[in-house]
Amino acid sequence: MIEIVDGRLNLRQPRADSIQVTGMPSLRATFPLLLATALAASPALAADAANGERIAKRWCAECHVVAPGQTSAKADAPPFATIAARNGTSVPLDKFLLNPHPKMPDMQLSRGEVADIVAYIATLKK
């Protein structure tokens, strides 16, 4: 910082708390816009039903009927079409799949994989 004291030119470092930046919007004001833009532009956040079908055929078809034309599955595991037809369950399907529960192995699916499976099941709703 340059200042003139008693007719003399003094150079000194500014204090950190005295530095002001002008002409820039505050982070508080711009953060919501930046976050919304990032979320809207991220294709990874969109559920992919086709990938959900691939995952279901690989990991779920041993116990569930996951696709039309599948001929065998365990009798006590509901077909995906039946799951799709259910209205208003107490626990959303994605939450159910993310938490280990009896009768179903903990497959350690990612949130994205679960979203893809849920999107695929939704395509089976009639």
Write the layout of secondary structure elements.
Blueprint: E1 2-5, E2 8-11, H1 27-41, H2 49-59, H3 80-85, H4 93-98, H5 111-123
Antiparallel strand pairs: 1-2
Helix pairs in contact: 2-5
Give a description of the structure.
This protein is mainly α. It is built from 5 helices and 2 strands. The chain has helices spanning 27-41, 49-59, 80-85, 93-98, 111-123, and strands at residues 2-5, 8-11. A two-stranded antiparallel sheet has the order 1-2. The model has no long low-confidence stretch (mean pLDDT 78).
By helix and strand content, what is the structural category?
A: mainly alpha
Oligomer: single chain
Mean pLDDT: 78
What's the count of strands?
2
Strands ordered across the widest β-sheet: 1-2
Radius of gyration over C-alpha positions, nearest whole angstrom:
28 Å
How many H/I helices?
5
Q: What is the H/E string?
A: EEHHHHH
Strand content: 5-15%
Helix content: 40-55%
| Unreliable parts | none
Query: How far is it from the N-terminal to the C-terminal residue, by CA?
Result: 72 Å
Instruction: State the major sheet.
Output: 2 strands, antiparallel
Shape: rod-shaped
From the structure above, extract its key features.
126 residues; mainly alpha; 2 strands; 6% strand
What is the compact description of this entry?
With 126 residues, the protein is mainly α. It is 40% helix and 6% strand.
